[in-house]
Inverse folding.
């Protein structure tokens, strides 16, 4: 079996496992958090998900140009491109962090009319944790794009 077929099979296995894990994980998370906290978690996760748009499709560009530079045996340009995208992703991560912190400090303004004090504090904690996770994840997503070319 050639590498292309193996890659396709592994891709389908990855999609299958991702869906199975999500189906098993969601009821577990709901049971552990409870309905109220799970609703808060879903709300915060959907707000933070909007910040992932800041990637602007750079991951696909990294995959494309990495393949192009490897075929053309232009290793130096490839490494320069990785450095440029790493700096760009660090900047995007900092920008996402600033937006997330802005949301964090304004949670009470955004949700005070529909939630009580305890729920707002929980949202703030979740917002801060998810924002920090996203800000750290952006620079490391470069490496996932590089590895997808292997």
């Amino acid at each position: 079996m050639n590498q292309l077929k193996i890659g396709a099979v592994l891709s389908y296995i990855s999609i299958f496992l991702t869906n199975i894990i999500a189906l098993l994980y969601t009821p577990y998370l709901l049971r552990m958090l409870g309905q109220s906290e799970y609703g808060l978690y879903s709300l915060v996760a959907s707000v933070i998900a909007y910040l992932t748009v800041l990637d602007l499709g750079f991951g696909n560009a990294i995959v494309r140009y990495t393949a192009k530079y490897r075929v053309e045996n232009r290793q130096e340009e490839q490494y320069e491109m990785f450095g440029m995208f790493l700096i760009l992703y660090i900047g995007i991560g900092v920008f996402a962090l600033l937006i997330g912190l802005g949301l964090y400090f304004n949670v009470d303004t955004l949700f005070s009319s529909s939630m009580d004090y305890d729920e707002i504090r929980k949202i703030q904690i979740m917002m801060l944790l998810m924002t920090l996770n996203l800000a750290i994840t952006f620079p490391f997503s470069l490496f996932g794009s590089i590895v997808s070319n292997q």
Notes: The chain has six helices and no strands. Helices lie at 3-33, 35-51, 58-71, 75-105, 107-111, 117-147.
